[in-house]
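INFO batch 0412 | record 1 of 1 | parsing
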Amino acid sequence: MRKLAVWLAVAGWLTAQVFASSAQSTSGAGAPCPTTEHSMDAHHTAVNMHGDEAMGFGHEKTTHHFFLAAGGGSIEVRANDAHDSASIDAIRSHLNHIAQMFASGDFSTPAFVHSTIPPGVTTMKLLKSRIEFKYEALDGGGRVRIESSDPVAVAAVHDFLRFQIIDHQTGDAQE
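INFO prediction complete | emitting tokens
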């Protein structure tokens, strides 16, 4: 079992590295490849469109953050307008639901939003009993804390969150 867990962690890390390097593809003297740049813009537009559909609130009215921590990390979403009660209620409902789905091993929402299975998901599903997913209401939104004492699970959570940072273009720290 330990060999499988190590293999899954390495596979998740490699997947994240491949995705990160493909997101930085260039041609010529450091100029972005026009085809890759257009493809990345189209992908980001699709991520936003799928995200709005899956989450029940608009990405233009909210701000997402993905934070890594020693024991896992968190997903935070807040309404841009502190008086936008419709977005705040939708954020809280969505994140509460996401925490429950993830705890049961259901990662279908991020797979739909990103049109792929994000790195770390397979390992997180296998090790779901070693990971805690906790929803918390925040001023203007909510948070899902993802925590584990298992180093393989934490590595998978980090892979998952790094992918979110890159694909949602949040600019959050990846370390």
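INFO post-check: DSSP finds six helices and six strands in the chain.
INFO record closed
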